[in-house]
Design goal:
Layout (H helix, E strand, L loop, with lengths): L1 E8 L5 E12 L2 E13 L2 H11 L6 H22 L8 E12 L12 E5 L2 H8 L2 E4 L3 H5 L9 H8 L6 E6 L2 E7 L11 E7 L2 H10 L11 H4 L5 H7 L3 H4 L13 H11 L6 H23 L6 E5 L6 H11 L4 E3 L10 H14 L7 H4 L9 E3 L5
Parallel strand pairs: 1-4, 4-6, 7-10, 10-11
Antiparallel strand pairs: 1-2, 2-3, 4-5, 6-12, 7-8, 8-9
Bound molecules: adenosine-5'-diphosphate (ADP) and magnesium ion.
């Protein structure tokens, strides 16, 4: 058994999800037990600095260096705090904070690679915690010609595959991403698919901040949106964006579905008489319809079950809309099959660190588009005491 801390902060920039896990076994044959899970919000000013960089605001190299280490310190603090009162971990897997993601597309041209930058340097995390840390998980996949995302499908395959049920595991963070896992049978691993479905909560969160003058950062349980009515012609129009038509492998981020995109949505909505609740319902519908539409367009067949995770799985209105659009395919959350929906992504980066540490590959070429399976992550050792 290896005790590992998994650390994740996604495109929502809401805070650092920390999962303390015990991992047993090797490669795809692993079992994971969650010992503790908690989210540690970023200090307000750090969150603002991150969001500014993500929105394309120029910063100096000095500011970048400082932000890199402030984030590493926040991650280290989360790793230390989550272990309080527990037997200590011997390994940390830290995703870091994405501040830039420029994936490979058909237009990138020959010989080009994608680019993705996660900051919060691993060497500082390992020095501050005294524990070996693995970070920079996306780089090796990108170097092998992949998107560097999504990286969770291999973990989903290990922890959530089923003998007789085809499943979609749908994470709804700032961005949505899916792993399609056919029932375990011959060649099931090569039939797994994964891609970023588009906006998860990112546009909704930005809209709530905009509508409340910053007083609120998200629509709790989707209550506000639930009191409105989605404007379907607008959803149709928004679904015409090129990203939704691109076949997988594909990935995206706040560069596309961020503040500029929201401003376009606000502009578009002005020709319809929408109140704030209708506008939120319409953005929620975009998330739901883009997810389900991508299943219909890009999967060999519809799954037999959809399992949700990530913060958006707590948005009951969004969950209901997904269920409506999926008809007879049942929608539940991963907790119902024994894996925490709130901490699955953090757990996944603990597993990816464990795989790096034990020399198992971490990517699934079918999901990222990489030319081969590779070891993911850079290992950083603590200073000798
Ligand atoms: N109770 C809730 N109701 C509605 N939305 C929620 C709720 N809890 C969390 N969320 C949404 O989930 C987001 C955080 O999800 P998370 O999985 O951490 O995403 P990321 O990986 O992008 O950080 C929040 O910004 C918010 O939009
Ligand atoms: Mg988060």
């Amino acid at each position: 058994m290896t005790r590992v801390v998994g650390l994740m902060s996604g495109t929502s920039v809401d805070g650092i999800d920390a999962a303390l896990v015990d991992i047993f076994g090797t490669n795809l044959d692993i079992k994971v037990q969650l010992v503790a899970g908690k989210t540690y919000p970023y200090p307000r000013d750090v969150r603002k600095r991150i969001l500014d960089v993500c929105a394309g605001k120029p910063i100096s190299m000095l500011e970048l260096a400082e932000l890199d280490d402030v984030i590493a310190s926040c991650f280290a603090k989360a790793a230390i705090t989550i272990q309080t009162g527990h037997q200590k971990a011997t390994l940390i897997g830290s995703h870091g904070q994405t501040v830039y993601h420029r994936p490979l597309t058909e237009k990138s041209g020959k010989g080009k690679l994608g680019y993705s930058l996660q900051i919060g340097r691993g060497i500082l995390i390992s020095h501050l915690t005294g524990i070996t840390a693995v970070n920079n998980f996306r780089v090796a996949d990108i170097a092998a010609g992949g998107q560097g995302a999504p990286l969770v499908p291999r973990v989903d395959a290990a922890l959530l595959s089923h003998d007789s049920e085809d499943r979609c595991i749908q994470n709804i963070g700032g961005i949505g991403n899916v792993t399609y896992i056919p029932a375990r049978g011959s060649n099931w691993l090569s039939k797994i698919r994964g891609w970023d479905t588009g906006p998860g909560n990112s546009l909704l969160d930005l809209a709530v901040e905009h509508l409340t003058g910053g007083a609120k950062t998200y629509d709790e349980d989707g209550k506000w949106a639930a009191s409105g009515t989605p404007c379907l012609p607008l959803v149709e129009k928004w679904l015409d964006v090129e990203y939704f038509h691109m076949p997988p492998p594909k990935s995206t981020g706040r560069e596309l579905f961020g503040v500029n995109y929201l401003h376009e949505c606000i502009k578009d909505s002005q020709s319809f008489q929408l109140n704030p609740a209708d506008f939120l319902a319409t953005l929620t519908e975009l998330t739901a319809a883009s997810i389900v539409g991508s299943y219909r367009n890009f999967l060999p067949q519809m799954p037999q079950r959809v399992l949700l995770c990530g913060g958006g799985s707590r948005n009951l209105y969004l969950k209901n809309r997904l269920q409506q659009l999926l008809g007879t395919v049942p929608v539940s959350i991963t907790d119902e099959v024994g894996l925490s929906a709130d901490f699955k992504e953090a757990i996944a980066f603990g597993v990816l660190a464990y795989w790096r540490h034990t020399n198992s590959p971490g990517n699934l070429p079918a999901a990222t588009g990489a030319s081969q399976e590779v070891f993911l992550g850079n290992i950083h050792l603590p200073l000798r005491s």
